[in-house]
C-alpha cells in the first residue's frame, strides 16, 4: 500500500547542502501497522512531509496504492491526499470550533453537503468514543480526548492510509495505551494501512507489525517485528527485548551465552532442560520475556561451567529454534 523507493531530500542552507533523507526505501503492506523509530534529527518528520508531498522529494518516488505521487499534477495530488489521513502529536485542533466542527473541517474543504457531513461526523465520533462530547471545545477535553478528535478528523475523508506523527508522545502512559488500542482497532475495522512515526520503543512493541530504524536519514534496519527481534546482535532486537542487567556473580572461566527465542520455543523449560540433559549447572545472569504483537519472545543471558560441552549444548539449543550467541565471559 505504501511504497517508498530511494527517497532523497536535500535542503540548501546557505552555502551547504543538508541531507535529511538519504536513499530511503520502504514498503508497508496493506492493512499493516508499521513503525518508523529514530532519535530527534533522524529524518522522521521530513519523511512524513515527503510521504504526503508537503515537501517535494529531491529524488526518488512515493506511491500510495498504485498511484505514484511524486509525478502527478497538483490537482491530482490534492485528490490523492484525501486518501491519506494525518494524526499529529498535539492534535492541532481549532480552538474556536467544537469537537464536531473540528471533525467536519476536512469535509467542508471538499464541499461535502451539510447533512451528509453531519451524518459522517456523528459516525466518526461514535467510532472514537466521543459521541457525548460533540459540542465540547478543545479546552474542555483531556489530552487523550483531543487526540481522539484528531484521529476522527483524519478519518473524515475515508482514507486508505493513516499517518501518525508521534501520536502519543504528549500523553500519559495510560492514555497512550488507549490511543494505541484505538489505532489498532480502527486498522482492523476499517482495513487501514498505518504508519506510526515515533521515538518510543514501547509504541512499536504495543502496536506495530513491522518496524524500521531511521538514522541520519537512512533506514539501517527494517523488518517484521518477529524477524528483527529474532536477529541476535541487531540494534532493534536489543532495543525491543533488552536485558535488564547482569547479575554480579559469574562462574570463573565458563562460557557466557545469549539465548534469543520466540513462539513455541519461548514456552520451553530451557534452563532446566539444559541442566537435565547435559548434567550441568546453569547460571542465569539476566533475562527478559515479553509479548510483542501476537508472539512471546525471550532473551536470556546464561553462563555455563568451563567443563560444560559447549558445542553439544549450542547444537541442542539451535535445533530447538533458539538463536545462540557466545559472549565474552
Automatic annotation (TrEMBL):
Molecular function via GO: ATP binding; ATP hydrolysis activity
Similarity field: Belongs to the ABC transporter superfamily.
Function according to Swiss-Prot or TrEMBL: Part of the ABC transporter FtsEX involved in cellular division. Has ATPase activity.
One example of a Gene Ontology biological process annotation: amino acid transport
Keyword Membrane: yes
Pfam families attached to this UniProt entry: ABC_tran (PF00005), NIL (PF09383)
Subunit structure: Homodimer. Forms a membrane-associated complex with FtsX.
Stored PROSITE patterns: ABC_TRANSPORTER_1, ABC_TRANSPORTER_2
GO cellular component: plasma membrane
Superkingdom, natural source: Bacteria
Protein name, as recorded: Methionine import ATP-binding protein MetN
Keywords: Amino-acid transport, ATP-binding, Cell membrane, Membrane, Nucleotide-binding, Translocase, Transport
Native species: Zafaria cholistanensis
UniProt xrefs under SMART domains: AAA (SM00382), NIL (SM00930)
Residues of the ABC transporter domain: 2-241
Amino acid at each position: 500500500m505504501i511504497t517508498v523507493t530511494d527517497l532523497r531530500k536535500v535542503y540548501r542552507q546557505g552555502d551547504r547542502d543538508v541531507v535529511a533523507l538519504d536513499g530511503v526505501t520502504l514498503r508497508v503492506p496493506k492493512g499493516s501497522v508499521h513503525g518508523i523509530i529514530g532519535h530527534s534529527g533522524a529524518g522522521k518528520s521530513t519523511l512524513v512531509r515527503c510521504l504526503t508531498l508537503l515537501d517535494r522529494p529531491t529524488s526518488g518516488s512515493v506511491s500510495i496504492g498504485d498511484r505514484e505521487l511524486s509525478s502527478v499534477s497538483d490537482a491530482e495530488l490534492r485528490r490523492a491526499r484525501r486518501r491519506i489521513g494525518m494524526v499529529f502529536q498535539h492534535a492541532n485542533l481549532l480552538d474556536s470550533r467544537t469537537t464536531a466542527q473540528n471533525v467536519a473541517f476536512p469535509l467542508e474543504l471538499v464541499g461535502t453537503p451539510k447533512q451528509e457531513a453531519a451524518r459522517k461526523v456523528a459516525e466518526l465520533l461514535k467510532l472514537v468514543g466521543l459521541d457525548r462530547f460533540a459540542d465540547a471545545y478543545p479546552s474542555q477535553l483531556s489530552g487523550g480526548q483531543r487526540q481522539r478528535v484528531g484521529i476522527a478528523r483524519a478519518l473524515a475523508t475515508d482514507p486508505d492510509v493513516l499517518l501518525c506523527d508521534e501520536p502519543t508522545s504528549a500523553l500519559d502512559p495510560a492514555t497512550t495505551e488507549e490511543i494505541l488500542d484505538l489505532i489498532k482497532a480502527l486498522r482492523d475495522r476499517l482495513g487501514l494501512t498505518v504508519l506510526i512515526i515515533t521515538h518510543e520503543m514501547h509504541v512499536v512493541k504495543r502496536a506495530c507489525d513491522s518496524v524500521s530504524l531511521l538514522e541520519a536519514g537512512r533506514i539501517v534496519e527494517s523488518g517484521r517485528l518477529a524477524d528483527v527481534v529474532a536477529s541476535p546482535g541487531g540494534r532493534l532486537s536489543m532495543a525491543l527485548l533488552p536485558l535488564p542487567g547482569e547479575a554480579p556473580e559469574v562462574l570463573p572461566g565458563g562460557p557466557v551465552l545469549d539465548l534469543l527465542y520466540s513462539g513455541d520455543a519461548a514456552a520451553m523449560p530451557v534452563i532446566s532442560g539444559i541442566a537435565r540433559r547435559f548434567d550441568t549447572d546453569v547460571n542465569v545472569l539476566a533475562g527478559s520475556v515479553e509479548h510483542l504483537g501476537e508472539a512471546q519472545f525471550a532473551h536470556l543471558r546464561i553462563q555455563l561451567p568451563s567443563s560444560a560441552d559447549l558445542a553439544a549444548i549450542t547444537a541442542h539449543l539451535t535445533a530447538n529454534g533458539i538463536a545462540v550467541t557466545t559472549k565474552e565471559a
